[in-house]
Amino acid sequence: MKSWNSFWFSRKTIRGEFLRSEYGLIFALGCLALIGSVGLLAVLAYTDHPMWQSIFAMAVAHMIAGKGVSVVQGLAMGLHPAIILILATVSDLVLMLLAYPVFVFAYEHFFETPLFQRHMRRVFESAQRSMDRIGRFKALGVFMFVWLPFWMTGVLAGSILGYSMGLKSWVTLVSAALGTFTSIVIWLFFSNQVISAVGWMNDQLIGLGVLALLLAMLAWRRRKRLRQAAAGQRDKR
Fold first, then answer.
1. Any idea of the CA torsion for 41, 44, 46, 52, to the nearest 10 degrees?
2. How far apart are CA 100 and CA 142, in angstroms?
3. Does residue 194 register a pLDDT over 70?
4. Tens of pLDDT along 156-170?
């Protein structure tokens, strides 16, 4: 009984420390943004708004494959570029506000735990590898890291990079937010140009192309995880 009480109070203390910290405030903002986004989508679905299914499909594509694929998905479904820009940016910001404080707090308090080593360590290692290239640019480096769309680097990796540089949280988050916004603008421009160039293709073919790209990316990610798991097993030996 004593050990259980100690475990419970220990977890309670850690939760309280997290919620009272700067990271807790960032996480709370992320929760509010997520609730607002889901609530708005629920209202659109309840009122049977003609765009709600397209918005939901784009959100799912963004969650699975990132902003590049979700932008193409939105354009293929006929969403206005301004709506696509807002949706993709909000999706990235919600992810960043929720994941950044959790990852950083876990890094500072649970670095040696199996949970961190298995699911979070790779993000920090990726950020450390990028330090040699752009670490000297500080906030501008975070912006460039997230902004360059062909690097396929997201706001989470960019924000962790900012933390690894020793930047303040608000500097890191603002730099990453501006980077992802600019990156989405570029994706919108080039994707729109490509779709216009192949305007003879109908929406069904474009949709099938997006689906094929999603499946290919999921297969690639699974293969990458299997390779990393195999490498980890070899290291243990």
1. -80
2. 14
3. no
4. 888 998 998 889 999
Residue 99 contacts residue 119 (beta carbons within 8 Å): no
* 88, 62 contact by CB (below 8 A): yes
CB contact at 8 A, 102 and 30: no
What is the number of other CB atoms lying within 10 angstroms of the CB of residue 7? 10
Q: What's the token pair of residue 197?
A: 């160039």
How confident is the prediction for the chain on average, in pLDDT?
78
- What DSSP designation does 79 have? -
CA–CA gap between residue 167 and residue 205 (Å, rounded): 45
pLDDT at residue 176, as a whole number: 93
Output 106-113 pairs: Cβ under 8 A, ≥24 positions apart. Answer: 107/163, 109/14
Angle, CA of 33, 38 and 41, to the nearest 5°: 125
Q: Are 41 and 55 in contact (CB under 8 A)?
A: yes
Amino acid letter, residue 207: G
Going from N- to C-terminal start, the domains of the chain cover 2-197, 204-237
Query: What is the enclosing helix (H) or strand (E) of 46?
Result: helix 22-46
Q: What is the pLDDT of residue 147?
A: 85
Count of CB atoms within 10 A of residue 119's CB?
11
Taking CA atoms, 56 is separated from 81, 126, 184, 207, 214, in Å, by 16, 30, 18, 14, 15
